[in-house]
């Protein structure tokens, strides 16, 4: 039966639903068996058209699976089928047709690498936390911090799809080690299972200062270069010289204080009434404790086995090294050409290409380390074009994406590893004149009035 729903009517329904191309689907029976993992829950109660077409190509069998859950149309919005949706997105369709590699590898190589890396991380934890190998800690804490974050990102994107039980196991490991990040991916505890998360809005409007929540909610971006629509706070000349020490020491110490406060709040929430959600609050507390114990960014386990001052000094230095080495990663993750005014309406894929960039590494060793961190930043463009693609396939898809951009006259941005430092430093220097407004010169570049 062809039924029309209003948004108000849908919000009153007791079942999980989503909207794709103006069609309404009841997806409650499909959530647990979705091969892409738990992120499908972020489509509940939202128009998931952009994300569905980004994850499923025109020849995907997801079209036939989705048809089983169709219940009607959304009133006041044009309802079209998926074939018509692809005809209206010729550029995105072109990229899918140029893609000659499958989204996942033919062998479970991603799963094998994740298991091997988690085993190596366990050995590293024993050497650094229990035996006190502080030099090894300083050398590799940044690497493991980035790997764990990328691992959670990969598993939530459905990267490990060969076996659902293995996928759930990897999800459990990475979500415990990066428990605080779950709110970013899944929403706050009271909103889990409904609505788009911050991460999904980042994928729909990447690096858009007005709509991407990363620009307003993520920490550690105070000194990262901004588009002219994301206002800088002018600074004095003497202030422009300490942006690096502030980023390396002050901000990490503030993060430690914030985590300690979050831990105390979690303890308090377990002790206070009402008791209805007590198990969920206890689960949150245990997850937070596990992260604080073993995550390289906090290392509480080392305080239990080493002299407190040694453990604290090692942690502070390790966080400083991590912030220093990972600064270019933040630069690329939040890439925005300073002088781009993207006010015109364009196809979804064009916005992805304009505001994403790949990080270029200076040598093969750096590339290998990035691969072991699941290519989190050297293939940002490919990840945003095909979010469901496994990280082991990025290097095969990159030449095709680059060639397609060249043929269509679309941007394909790359940023050098050390270029991130230079851009941050240059913009900090440009804004060291307090009280002077920005103006647009005849060249189209935004400069300080003299």
Describe the structure in your own words.
The protein folds into two domains: 4-86, Flavocytochrome B2, Chain A, domain 1, CATH 3.10.120; 89-450, no CATH class. The protein has 20 helices and eight strands. The protein has helices at residues 7-12, 49-55, 62-67, 82-87, 90-98, 109-130, 134-156, 164-177, 182-186, 198-204, 214-217, 243-271, 278-294, 300-305, 308-333, 348-354, 364-372, 380-385, 394-408, 419-430; strands spanning 4-5, 17-20, 23-26, 70-74, 357-360, 413-416, 438-440, 446-448. The strands form three sheets. Strands 1-4-3-2 form a four-stranded mixed beta sheet. A two-stranded parallel sheet has the order 5-6. Residues 189-193 and 435-450 have low confidence and may be disordered. Keywords: Heme, Iron, Metal-binding.
Features:
Cytochrome b5 heme-binding domain-containing protein; 20 helices; two-stranded parallel ribbon; 8 strands; metal ion binding; alpha/beta; globular
Instruction: Please tally the β strands and state the result.
Output: 8
Q: What's the shape?
A: globular
Mean pLDDT: 83
Q: How is the main sheet built? A: 4 strands, mixed
Radius of gyration: 23 Å
Quaternary state, please? single chain
The number of helical runs is: 20
List segments where confidence is low: pLDDT < 50 over at least 5 consecutive residues.
189-193, 435-450
Side-by-side strand order of the widest sheet:
1-4-3-2
Succession of helices and strands: EHEEHHEHHHHHHHHHHHHHEHHHEHEE
Q: Report the end-to-end length measured between terminal Cα atoms.
A: 68 Å
Pfam families: Cyt-b5, FA_desaturase
GO cellular component, one term: membrane
Domain Cytochrome b5 heme-binding: 17-75
InterPro entries: Cyt_B5-like_heme/steroid-bd, Cyt_B5-like_heme/steroid_sf, Cyt_B5_heme-BS, FA_desaturase_dom, Fatty_acid_desaturase
């Amino acid at each position: 039966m062809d039924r029309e729903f209003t948004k108000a009517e849908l919000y009153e329904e007791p079942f999980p639903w989503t909207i794709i191309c103006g069609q309404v689907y009841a997806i409650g029976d499909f959530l647990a068996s979705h091969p892409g993992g738990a992120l499908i829950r972020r489509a509940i109660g939202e128009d998931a058209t952009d994300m569905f077409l980004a994850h499923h190509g025109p020849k995907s069998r997801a079209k036939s699976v989705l048809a089983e859950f169709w219940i009607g149309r959304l009133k006041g919005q044009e309802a079209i089928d998926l074939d018509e949706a692809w005809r209206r997105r010729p550029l995105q369709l072109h990229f899918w047709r140029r893609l000659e590699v499958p989204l996942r590898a033919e062998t479970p190589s991603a799963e094998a690498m994740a298991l091997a890396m988690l085993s190596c991380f366990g050995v590293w934890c024993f050497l650094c936390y229990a035996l006190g190998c502080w030099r090894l800690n300083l050398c590799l804490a940044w690497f493991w911090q980035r790997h764990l974050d990328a691992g959670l990102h990969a598993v939530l994107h459905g990267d490990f799809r060969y076996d659902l039980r293995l996928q759930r196991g990897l999800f459990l490991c990475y979500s415990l080690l990066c428990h605080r990040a779950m709110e970013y991916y899944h929403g706050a505890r009271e909103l889990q299972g409904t609505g788009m998360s911050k991460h999904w809005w980042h994928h729909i409007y990447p690096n858009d200062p007005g709509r991407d929540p990363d620009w307003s909610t993520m920490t550690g971006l105070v000194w990262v270069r901004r588009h002219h629509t994301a206002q800088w706070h002018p600074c004095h000349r003497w202030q422009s010289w300490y942006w690096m020490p502030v980023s390396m020491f002050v901000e990490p110490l503030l993060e430690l204080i914030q985590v300690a406060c979050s831990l105390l709040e979690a303890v308090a929430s377990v002790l206070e009434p009402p008791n209805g959600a007590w198990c969920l609050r206890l689960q949150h507390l245990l997850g937070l404790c596990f992260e604080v114990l073993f995550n390289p960014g906090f290392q509480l386990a080392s305080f239990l086995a080493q002299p407190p001052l040694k453990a604290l000094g090692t942690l502070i230095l390790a966080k400083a090294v991590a912030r220093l080495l990972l600064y270019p990663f933040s630069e690329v993750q939040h890439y925005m050409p300073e002088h781009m005014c993207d006010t015109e309406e364009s196809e979804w894929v064009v916005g992805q290409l304009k505001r994403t960039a790949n990080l270029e590494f200076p040598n093969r060793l750096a590339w290998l380390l990035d691969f072991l961190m699941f290519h989190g930043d050297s293939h940002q463009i490919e990840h945003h074009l095909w979010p469901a693609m496994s990280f082991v396939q990025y290097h095969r898809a990159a030449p095709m994406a680059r060639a397609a951009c060249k043929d269509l006259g679309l941007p394909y941005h790359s940023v050098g590893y050390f270029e991130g430092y230079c851009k941050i430093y240059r913009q900090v220097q440009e804004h060291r004149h307090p009280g002077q407004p920005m103006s647009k010169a005849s060249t189209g570049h935004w400069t300080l009035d003299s």
